[in-house]
Design a protein that fits this description.
Number of domains: 1
CATH topology: Rossmann fold
Strand content: 15-25%
CATH superfamily: NAD(P)-binding Rossmann-like Domain
CATH class: Alpha Beta
Strand order of the largest sheet: 3-2-1-4
Number of helices: 4
CATH architecture: 3-Layer(aba) Sandwich
Length: 122
């Protein structure tokens, strides 16, 4: 069975996907920003379900980090991509924090397209 790569796989819906897939015996690659949380979740899932869980620390609002994740997808080890990463803006659309809005667009708009494009040929 090939691996599933899950962005935002250390909390919320992403973690629920990770648990469900690990329960089925699927190897995982979890992508998130928080290295400590990545290590903890990977160890917990590996121990609980006996699956290989790799991690890739990446800020998906950073294009260089996104490219590293896309490169990993291009290896062909995957048959499932769960584009789940995201965050709440908590700022008004008008007159709000433009830098934060731009980061949100990168992480939740551009990144899923880039990663899907990297995964699709496989």
């Amino acid at each position: 069975m090939r691996a599933a790569l899950i962005t935002g796989g250390t909390s919320g819906i992403g973690l629920a996907f990770a648990r469900a897939l690990a329960r089925e015996g699927r190897p995982l690659v979890l992508v998130a920003r928080d290295v400590d949380r990545l290590r903890t979740v990977a160890a917990d899932l590996s121990h609980a379900f006996g699956v290989r869980v790799d991690t890739l620390a990446a800020d998906l609002s950073d294009r260089d980090d996104v490219e590293r994740v896309a490169d990993r997808l291009r290896t062909g080890d995957f048959d499932l991509l769960i584009n789940n990463a995201g965050f709440s803006l908590k700022t008004p659309l008008v007159g709000g924090d433009d830098e934060l809005a731009d980061r949100a667009y990168e992480a939740m708009g551009r990144t899923p397209r880039v990663l899907a494009s990297a995964a699709a040929p496989r």
